[in-house]
Amino acid sequence: MPKIGDIQLPDFPLLLAPMEDVSDPPFRALCKEQGADVVYTEFISSEGLIRDAAKSVMKLDIYERERPVGIQIFGAELDSMLQSIDIVEKSNPDIIDINFGCPVKKVVSKNAGAGILKDIPLMIKLTEEMVKRTHLPITVKTRLGWDSDSIKIVEVAERLQDVGIKAISIHGRTRVQMYKGSADWGPIAAVKNNPRMHIPIFGNGDVDTPEMAMKMRDEYGLDGAMIGRASIGYPWFFNEVKHYFKTGTHKDPPTMEERVSAARRHLQMAIDWKGEKLGVFETRRHYTNYFKGIPNFKEYRMKMVTSDEAEDVFAAFDEVMEMFGDYQFTTV
């Protein structure tokens, strides 16, 4: 079974991916309850941390119930990344993850995230110095390469392992692809099949059904799956995958009561953590999936995603239970 440093994980662990404005403490708590084996924070700017920017510092909040939990940081300046390591350590995470995969232009334009895939020597140097800076296990999340002509992930992963990382998560697309097309897990399997590799290799990208998770495990031989978009508004995905692995059958989907209860808790925890305005705003993206597939639901969804007052959103949840409480969800 895979280990990240001294952290023992179950066979084929499921990891919650770091996602901006998604994988915050409230959502991580829900995913952990529903079977996520490792959770990661939203990515945090190293420059923001050393400037003590409020948004960046707030993302350092982690809780005992989340463990093992990793804090993910991004940047391309060595001094800033090293200083951020010192700051992150004070939050006492189990893992520090380096983001070498974010494809967003504002990150890439600073040579951070996937931007560093155009400068592999810098990527290796940054990683090596960060590993030396901390006693915590360093992991990396990255992509196959910058574009289809520069996919060298087998070599890159080996070099990252050689400088001391304890695990790597690889998204099966290049930066140029962004999130278009299908993820290619073949190059990730090639990393796993490199006889020199001994750290866990986690796959990421398009693991959106239990069958796809099983395919990643059985056909591609990877050590685990990092789950991103499939979990947004649907924290039950982790346990559904585990149920499928164990039984070969689909777990019954959550009932309306369970969905409304989760949405309520999610919103309340978000308000408690970041205040009403942000709490209401940043949970909106989850509601489509919380209540996906319900006919004639647009009126209620619009209330949830346009209301600025928590009271109105909670009232919308009440209306949903009253109108659709007996609705029977089916397994997709």
From TrEMBL:
Keywords, sorted A to Z: Flavoprotein, FMN, NADP, Oxidoreductase, RNA-binding, tRNA processing, tRNA-binding
Cofactor(s) named in the record: FMN
InterPro entries attached to this UniProt entry: Aldolase_TIM, DUS-like_FMN-bd, DUS_fam, DusB-like, tRNA-dHydroUridine_Synthase_C, tRNA_hU_synthase_CS
Gene3D superfamilies (alphabetical): Aldolase class I (3.20.20.70), Putative flavin oxidoreducatase, domain 2 (1.10.1200.80)
Protein name: tRNA-dihydrouridine synthase
Enzyme class: oxidoreductase
Gene responsible for this protein: dusB
NCBIfam families with a match to the protein in the record: nifR3_yhdG
Species whose genome carries this gene: Sediminicola arcticus
